[in-house]
Amino acid sequence: MKASEIRKLSAEELETKLIELKDELFNLRFQQTINQLDNPMRISAVKKDIARIKTIQRDIELHGSEA
Predict the structure, then answer these.
(1) Cα–Cα distance between 67 and 51 in angstroms, integer?
(2) Which of 3, 9, 17, 21 has the fewest Cβ atoms within 10 angstroms?
(3) CATH number, domain at 7?
(4) Does the structure show a pLDDT above 90 at 64?
(5) Which domain holds residue 53?
């Protein structure tokens, strides 16, 4: 997910997406623990998406929605 796509989402959608990604990360880590993970690179991609969403949420918090 690109930052430009994330910026188009509303605050509620950002929060929902963040929760979904955290759940996905938990499931991926669980799969990794029991050696059933197909694509280990997906973990880093999900972590980066979570970081992007949190960064944009913080930017909106500091500068408002016009940022």
Answers:
(1) 18
(2) 3
(3) 1.10.287.310
(4) no
(5) 3-63
Decide: 47 and 36 in contact? Cβ < 8 Å.
no
pLDDT tens digit string along 5-61? 999 999 999 999 999 999 999 999 999 999 999 999 999 999 999 999 999 999 999
Q: How many residues belong to the chain?
A: 67
Q: Which residues contact 42 (CB under 8 A, 6 or more apart)?
A: 28
**How many structural domains is the chain composed of?**
1
Question: Which residues have a Cβ under 8 Å from the Cβ of 7 and sit 6 or more positions away?
Answer: 56
How many whole angstroms separate alpha carbon 39 and alpha carbon 64? 37
What pLDDT was estimated at residue 12? 95
Which pLDDT band, with edges at 50, 70 and 90, does 1 fall under?
confident
